[in-house]
Amino acid sequence: MIIGGGAAGLMCALTAGRRGKRVRVIEHANRVGKKILMSGGGRCNFTNTGTSPTNFLSANPHFCKSALARYTPADFIDMVDSHRIAWHEKELGQLFCDVSSKQIVGMLLEECAQAGVRIDVGCKVDAVHRVGGGFRIETGPGEIECPALVVATGGLSIPSMGATGFGYDLARQFGHDVLPVRAGLVPLTLSGKHHERLQDLSGVALPVESRCNGASFRADLLITHRGLSGPAVLQISSYWQPGDDLRLDLLPDSEAFEFLRSQQRERPAAELRTVLGEVLPRRFAQRLCEVWFGNKPMKQWRETELREIADQLKAWPVVASGTEGYRTAEVTLGGVDTTQLSSSTMQSKQVDGLYFIGEVVDVTGHLGGYNFQWAWASGHAAGMAL
């Protein structure tokens, strides 16, 4: 019995079904794979060829190693290729469907059908009880008994897609600890003067390097009407919490001070906002000069002033007030404590026959297909053990 028809649940189901197990998936939404369908702009960033344990956050960073090693991106690509689904690679090993994410859901459903897996949608679980060596699940249509139960209910991100905290409640019911959860891979919000200074620049984007708590990411920044987004911010959001020091390198490909000094020598009459407007979006460069740097011809800046400006360009402070929360978060950080699970099978160390896989577990990937690879790998690990 698998509760949850998302990426991890379906992978677990087809894996166990192929091994001759009788498998039933129950999904409370009206269809399976909703997050798969909406991912990657409708094209599903289904894995990342560069996946390694370093791409994941967890209180127990070694936990993900076993599952990831035994089911790799190449393994999933083989299944995609066997279904003749065309795909392409974007930057940094990110793989997307050429046509539609519906193809990935269709592939998983076809594999489940071939393996004899039963899938019930619109089926809400009301209660779960331990009965003898197995479980009794109370659902709207009736009671179901099973010797093994897999919890693949996901996290709290994107509640409009049906996300709930049911999996965490179930874990606690059976004596598991649940580490604090929060939104991850999520836009940051600004307030007060920080918001006022940037809100009319909504839509402006630029390449940056975001840095916080020892982590750094080179990617694009996007200014929004609520704050900051784009891959650079989504990535660093998983490492940031209110009050933490967050910096952006606005010129990640150049030595800012040397650039300013060369411009001072070569274009002494040019104003700072003009010079910066040639290496940054013009409106953004103008706002930097209006609010932070000031503006005058390059020949009028002292060396110490240029060095201060360069330092700010290379470590521009962001004072975020919070995040947009689960409403737009791609993942949930935290979850079921992995110290109480087997890293090779995903089975509970406390309750025989109880498994936790996917996002409900305290393993969270970076942006770029890593969370899907964790879903495939953890689902496969449990499916091979059932």
TrEMBL record:
<dbReference type="InterPro" id="IPR055178">
    <property type="entry name" value="RsdA/BaiN/AoA(So)-like_dom"/>
</dbReference>
<dbReference type="InterPro" id="IPR036188">
    <property type="entry name" value="FAD/NAD-bd_sf"/>
</dbReference>
<keyword id="KW-0274">FAD</keyword>
<protein>
    <recommendedName>
        <fullName>Flavoprotein, HI0933 family</fullName>
    </recommendedName>
</protein>
<feature type="domain" description="RsdA/BaiN/AoA(So)-like Rossmann fold-like">
    <location>
        <begin position="1"/>
        <end position="384"/>
    </location>
</feature>
<dbReference type="InterPro" id="IPR057661">
    <property type="entry name" value="RsdA/BaiN/AoA(So)_Rossmann"/>
</dbReference>
<feature type="domain" description="RsdA/BaiN/AoA(So)-like insert">
    <location>
        <begin position="182"/>
        <end position="331"/>
    </location>
</feature>
<dbReference type="InterPro" id="IPR004792">
    <property type="entry name" value="BaiN-like"/>
</dbReference>
<keyword id="KW-0285">Flavoprotein</keyword>
<dbReference type="InterPro" id="IPR023166">
    <property type="entry name" value="BaiN-like_dom_sf"/>
</dbReference>
<dbReference type="Pfam" id="PF22780">
    <property type="entry name" value="HI0933_like_1st"/>
</dbReference>
<dbReference type="Pfam" id="PF03486">
    <property type="entry name" value="HI0933_like"/>
</dbReference>
